């Protein structure tokens, strides 16, 4: 996985703050975040060996972020430690109905390139998942991955994809979009790709070369949907890397997304058996 590595501070409030009002903060949590890091951790929890490419600063948040990655079993050698600067910190303000507003800094998040990736990542990996980084870096990583015979997936994440992403869209086999991104860029994804559109509580759709698959999603009381899209991508990728068909991949993705949306925090504790319980045996 390549992209952002953040330190997340989640604040649970009674309502999203109006510009001139103070929010009443209830519970407060801190933990590792960033879409690429979340996907790498989720993959590792699903039993897929994962390595991460990104950057943190040599500060407290960066050290904590890397420690959490190691504890989750993620190979973090590809996370560059930048002297000076700041690790990206995000404040996630979450209301009781699970609605989230994100504020924060990007810190040193873009301070990596193909040159900082340990060469054995490309030699040993089967797949590269790109999310959130600047389009030129994403495209350079995708080109290298393709040369080395890896599959490639792309999720523009919270940054709305623009024209600059066309190169990476052309290099990816699987593209994950939310509904807003699907409206904006669906037409620009070249034919032959698998396009997965996430619809929050409404589940998801996969458009594959063999046809369209819809899944209604799983019923869950939304608590904090931060990280649900990352868990969703990890579930989908874990299933296809395991040789499952797209139908099951979509079910596993929705199950994992629902589990994360239904619990507080970006990477809530989770048992792979919970996913299997919802989706049935492979
Ligand atoms: P993103 O976080 O990328 O914007 P979504 O909010 O659509 O994406 O969530 C990703 C996936 O997580 C959804 O497609 C769905 O599978 C699951 N999910 C998110 N919110 C809910 C919810 N309230 N109920 C059930 N599943 C959810």
Query: Strand order within the widest sheet?
Result: 1-8-9-10-11-12-13
Assigned CATH superfamily: Ribokinase
Number of helices: 9
- Name the CATH architecture: 3-Layer(aba) Sandwich
| Total strand segments | 13
CATH class: Alpha Beta
CATH topology: UDP-N-acetylmuramoyl-L-alanine:D-glutamate ligase
N-end to C-end Cα span: 25 Å
Contiguous uncertain segments of 5+ residues = none
Outline, from the CA principal axes?
A: globular
Q: What is the count of structural domains?
A: 1
* Class from helix and strand fractions: alpha/beta
Q: What is the radius of gyration? A: 18 Å
* Share in helix: 25-40%
Order of SSEs: EEEHEHEEEHEHEHEHEEEHHH
The residue-averaged pLDDT reads: 92
Question: Which ligands does the model contain, each kind named once?
Answer: adenosine-5'-diphosphate
The biggest beta sheet reads: 7 strands, mixed
Question: Would you give an account of this structure?
Answer:
The model has no long low-confidence stretch (mean pLDDT 92). 33% of the residues lie in helices and 24% in strands. The chain contains 9 helices and 13 strands. It has a 7-stranded mixed β-sheet with strand order 1-8-9-10-11-12-13. A 4-stranded mixed β-sheet has the order 3-2-6-7. With 282 residues, the protein is an alpha/beta fold. The protein has one domain (2-16, 25-279): Ribokinase (UDP-N-acetylmuramoyl-L-alanine:D-glutamate ligase, 3-Layer(aba) Sandwich). Helix 1 (35-45) crosses helix 7 and helix 7 runs antiparallel to helix 8 (246-261). Bound molecules: adenosine-5'-diphosphate. Adenosine-5'-diphosphate is lined by residues 178, 198-201, 203-204, 217-218, 220, 222, 225, 228-229, 232, 254, 257-258, 261.
